[in-house]
Amino acid sequence: MTKDPYEVLNIDKDVSAADIKKAYRTLAKTHHPDLHPGDAAAEQRFKEISQAYAVLGDEKKRGRFDRGEIDADGNERMANPFQGRHAGQHAGQHPGGFHCTVNGDEADLGDLGDIFANLFGGGRGFSGQHGFAGGGARAMRGQDVRYKLDVDFLDAVNGAKRRVTMADGGSLEVSLPKGLADGQTIRLKGKGAPGMNGASAGDALVTVSVRRHPILRRKGDDIHVTQSISLADAVLGGKVRVPTITGEIALTIPENSSGGRVMRLKGKGVQRPGKAAGDQLVTLQITLPKTPDPELVALLRRQHEAAEELEDARAA
Fold first, then answer.
1. Rounded to an integer, what is the distance from CA 153 to the centroid of its chain?
2. In the chain, where do the E strands start and end?
3. Spatial distance between the Cα atoms of 145 and 191, rounded to a whole number of angstroms
4. How would you class 263 by CB atoms within 10 Å of its CB: exposed for 0-12, middle for 13-18, buried for 19 or more?
5. How many domains does the chain have?
6. Angle of CA points 220, 221, 223, to nearest 5°
7. Taking the model in full, what pTM does it have?
């Protein structure tokens, strides 16, 4: 025996016609067989939902059901020799209406063609295997699915493989191309929601958020860094270790290098696919020791005094 239609749609008996349609749309979208291929339970559940709406979605039938004149299948509760004919007398009553075969009887579902057009893309009908009459199933591409992924600075500029956790608890491997910028979106073909009726799946769109690096900064395809050097290296020259996106390298500091000088490391910046690599720009910053060096202080004082004496002599 068919279940009580109010229970099937999970609604109270005093709800409005609009609430009935809303409840039906929600349940039909969730349990439609095209979304659950091969699932007999989902197909049966959908038939129950459709039958419930066939009764409650028709104002006259709903009234007759509430008064006990017809059962949940729409059949007369009293014996009627014309019952079989009555069950189908409204078929085709609404031109262009949506029809559904439920338990072997065709029920007129009125404007449900418009409802399913909104739910599933406006096709003329759905596959006969699910009991729908019409012009045949319409193939629908699956929806695109969006994800967000936080990545380290070096992984973004050098490329890497990372995994994204999907809504169903599964995971998806993402290949990060070299030179990936903050806010850039990666499209993974066919990794979105499945299509219907043989159509292709949607895509997965992964938007990347790049974390800051504690030392390196990116401007376009160039990498910038500030490098501290000692006063001795600035005056005499020397070698210092400088971080780059691929690891530390030895940088030669020329003699008599002033603070603020910018040294260019050609091709040590970001390299995007099909593009020439950028450069790394190293800004020198002279750093004095925390504890003053007495010999250095004495030397500088002598130089300062000698410079003052020379200036006085020129002025005399």
1. 21
2. 99-102, 105-108, 145-151, 160-165, 171-176, 185-188, 204-210, 217-219, 222-229, 238-242, 249-253, 262-265, 280-286
3. 8
4. middle
5. 3
6. 95
7. 0.52
Tokens 């949506």 sit at which residue?
A: 98
Asked if 64 and 43 sit in the same domain, the reply is yes
- Write down which residue in 105, 130, 155 finishes a domain: 130
In a domain, 28, yes or no: yes
Q: State how far the Cα of 122 lies from the Cα of 125, in Å rounded to an integer.
A: 8
Q: How far apart are the first and last CA of the chain?
A: 122
Q: Which amino acid does the sequence have at 234?
A: A
Q: Are residues 168 and 202 in the same domain?
A: yes
Distance CA 48, CA 73 (A): 10
Task: Give the count of beta carbons closer than 10 Å to the beta carbon of residue 5.
Answer: 27
Distance CA 69, CA 310 (A): 121
**Per-residue pLDDT in tens (0 to 9) along the chain, 316 residues:** 578 999 999 999 999 999 999 998 888 888 877 677 778 888 788 888 888 888 898 998 899 889 888 888 777 764 433 344 344 444 333 333 333 333 333 334 444 444 444 444 444 444 444 444 444 568 889 889 898 899 999 999 999 998 888 766 778 888 999 999 999 999 999 888 888 888 899 998 999 999 999 999 999 999 999 999 999 899 999 999 999 999 999 999 999 999 999 999 999 999 998 899 999 999 999 998 888 888 888 888 888 888 888 888 888 7
Q: Which domain holds residue 196?
A: 145-210
